[in-house]
Amino acid sequence: MTGIPGSYSPGGTTPRTPRRFGATSLRLRYGDTMALDDVSLAASPGEVTAVVGGDGAGKTSLLRCLAGAVQPDSGEVHSPGKLRTGYLPAGSGTYADLTVAENLAFRASAYGLAGTEAAARAEELTKLAGLADARDRLAGQLSGGMRQKLGVIAALLHRPELLILDEPSTGVDPVSRSDLWWLFASAAADGAAVILATTYLDDAQRASTVLVLDSGRTLAAGTPEQIVAAMPGSLSSVPQLPAGQAAQRSWRRGTSWRVWSPPGVPAIGAAVEPDLQDAVTVAALAAELGSRPPAETAAQVRTAAAPDSVARSSPAVSDRAVSPLPGSQSTGPLAEAVRVTRRFGSFTAVDDVSIEVLPGEIVGLLGANGAGKTTLIRMLLGLIPATAGDVLLLGQPPSRSTRRRIGYVPQGLGLYEDLTAAENMAFAAAVYGGTAVHGSSAAEPSPLGLAGRASMPVGELPLGLQRRVAFAQALAHRPELLVLDEPTSGVDPLGRARLWQTIAGAVRAGAGALVSTHYMEEAGECDRLIIMADGRVVAAGTAAEIIGDAQVTVVEAANWAAAFGQLERAGLPVALAGRLLRVPGASQAEVSRALSPDVRVYQAPATLEERFFDFAVRATASQVPA
Fold first, then answer.
1. Which of 356, 391, 484, 541 could anchor a disulfide with 545, C-beta 3.0 to 4.6 Å?
2. What distance in Å separates the CA atoms of residue 212 and residue 52, rounded to the nearest whole number?
3. Is 621 exposed, middle or buried (0-12, 13-18, 19+ CB in 10 A)?
4. Structural domains in the chain?
5. How far apart (Å, rounded) are the C-alpha atoms in residues 310 and 243?
6. Which of 319, 554, 300, 511 is nearest to 408 (CA)?
7. Which of 236, 318, 507, 52 lies closest to 249 in space, CA to CA?
8. Distance between CA atoms of 50 and 223, rounded to whole angstroms?
9. For residue 391, what pLDDT is reported?
10. pTM for this one?
11. Contacts (Cβ under 8 Å, ≥6 apart) of 12
């Protein structure tokens, strides 16, 4: 195959820099697994392109091909060459036993930067990333967000024309994610083409263009607006999961259900204007169903629209599996902390916090790293004692007997990777007293969607299936309280919707759920939110109550990069959102003064993430001595 100028095909070279980067018709196979199947991507200088998909979608394989780390079996990669490419692999790509300065010096030498030039560039980037005071700290001692920022600036040292970032924001709290996006936007404003992989659709909303992958194939591509406009059929909302074929095309979102009706199929419920999350979920559903389902009769549509109808063909765990233990359902708070404080030496991790989780509700616990969420959860579970205040679990002080009545999914899933799903389930059933689930046996794997994989060790399963096993294991003994830490991290949008369907099923049956998450889209699945910062509760209520009437200033400019630079020089916080800029915390007049007169400036409602950031910044500022 002959490569085009500025591209390489397997065995090709890089004669000159193209105006656009990316790939054309890539195919890559690992043994019997087709990692990439006819995938194409175009990324322009000065723009951010997002590659979206769950674990196993092909994101990393695509990025490794773009970076020159792997050669595809066929197709072309359009690249400026390895020395003009910056690459951040999954996991930050830094050395834990080197300091920040040593990591940057090592990377500079790899790119052939001269000592003076390297030192000046490293100093500039550490200041931009807020790491100047951490130059002599070991990378292994940095927080997750700080280490990701170190990885990004290491990839930016040589001012690459193409910046490739593999899941830079996964598992990173919203405050650190905001800082990372500022670095991405700065690189794009400086003329780089930025390509990042992510599982988060709110990341994709900020990108100029989006490529959605599933099992190595393209589900959707284009700008967020183009992907939404290209969604086939119609979307509607119903209060409960419908019956019949409509159940296979439905997913829970917030407190209601979305129902996708393909072209030619009558719609049910109230019409909904789709957004990117809806459009990507529909694309995954259409691919899963394989072909358009047959047109339904009017009688079936009426049945599906009936408010009391409940489908039993749902892909989520059945209602029977999530029902609380008969006769033991609590009527009071399932988990309660009253003016709880926890100190570690002179450090106060949780400071005078009061929260409660009631039966039949999902409570979202949000906070940056170090906010105190994990410490609070550990006290509620009775794993560590409170320094002051009272903690009750199911109306009693936490104990082994109360912990037997909860279901816990840690961020690390808590599964034994060398055991099969059935063996993990059987072990959990034995630990909880042998309670049967899914009918006859706690070890029955079929409801988990593991056909053909039931004998595989859990460590060899895709992440989405591993999380399904972890959920089923946590629900097997019909707990009264679910405690979930980042329950859907790394899962594709459709899989995420189905896991939330499982959570909602348990809560409908009378359980309660406390969910810790970094993913702002998931806040809409919660009945109430609790935001923590610096060990304290700084906001509580529904998402709408927390956002209130807060506004943010939006900038629309023909040259967003120039406007970005002007706002930076004015010292105003700025975030990239596609081709728009959002400036939280600054008035319209302040922003207008910093910009050219031909730039449009207006006010728009703030997002939950922007309000979260505002609360976190205020809490941090209040802790700084005057």
1. 541
2. 5
3. exposed
4. 7-225 (3.40.50.300), 235-314 (no CATH), 335-538 (3.40.50.300), 545-623 (3.30.70)
5. 6
6. 511
7. 236
8. 10
9. 93
10. 0.80
11. 1, 3, 76
Residue pair 581/575 in contact by the 8 Å Cβ criterion:
yes
Secondary structure (DSSP) of 152-198 = HHHHHTT--SEEEEESTTTT--HHHHHHHHHHHHHHHHTT-EEEEEE
Q: Please check whether residue 575 is in contact with residue 582, taking contact to mean a CB–CB distance below 8 angstroms.
A: yes
Question: How many whole angstroms separate alpha carbon 278 and alpha carbon 370?
Answer: 33
Residue 360's contacts (CB-CB under 8 Å, 6 or more residues apart) are 507, 508, 510, 511, 512
Phi then psi for residue 358, to 5 deg, are -100, 160
DSSP 17: -
- Give the pLDDT confidence score for residue 296 in this predicted structure: 39
Question: Using an 8 Å Cβ cutoff, are 420 and 456 in contact?
Answer: yes
Burial class (CB in 10 A: 0-12, 13-18, 19+), 316: buried
As to burial, measured by CB atoms within 10 angstroms (0-12 exposed, 13-18 middle, 19+ buried), residue 115 is exposed
Q: Are 322 and 511 in contact (CB under 8 A)?
A: yes
CA proximity to 82, closest of 111, 60, 45: 111
Cα–Cα dist 119/107, whole Å: 11
Q: Which residue has the higher pLDDT, 16 or 593?
A: 593
Decide if 76 contacts 65 (C-beta within 8 A). no
CB atoms closer than 10 angstroms to residue 257: 23
CB–CB of 249/285 below 8 Å?
A: yes
pLDDT digits (tens, 9 = 90+) for 439-485: 334 444 444 556 566 678 888 777 767 877 888 788 878 889 999 88
**Torsion region of 354: left, alpha or beta (phi above 0 gives left; psi -120 to 50 gives alpha):** beta
Q: Would you report the helix, strand and coil content of the chain in percent, each value rounded to 5?
A: 35, 25, 40
Mean pLDDT on 92-105:
87
Looking at residue 480, its amino acid is E
Angle at 146 between CA 65 and CA 540, to 5 degrees: 110
Place of tokens 């207008």: 592
- Tokens 């197709």, residue located: 75
Per residue in 206-229, pLDDT (tens digit) is 899 999 998 899 999 999 999 999
CB neighbour burial string for 65-76, b if at least 16 within 10 angstroms, e if fewer: bbbbebebeebb
In DSSP terms, which residues pair with 356 in a beta bridge?
336
Buried b (16+ CB within 10 A) or exposed e, 415-432: beeeebbbbbbbbbbeeb
Sheet containing 347-357: order of strands: 347-357, 335-344, 388-393
Task: Write phi, then psi, for 87 (nearest 5 degrees).
Answer: -135, 125
The closest alpha carbon to 197, from 58, 39, 47, 369, belongs to: 58
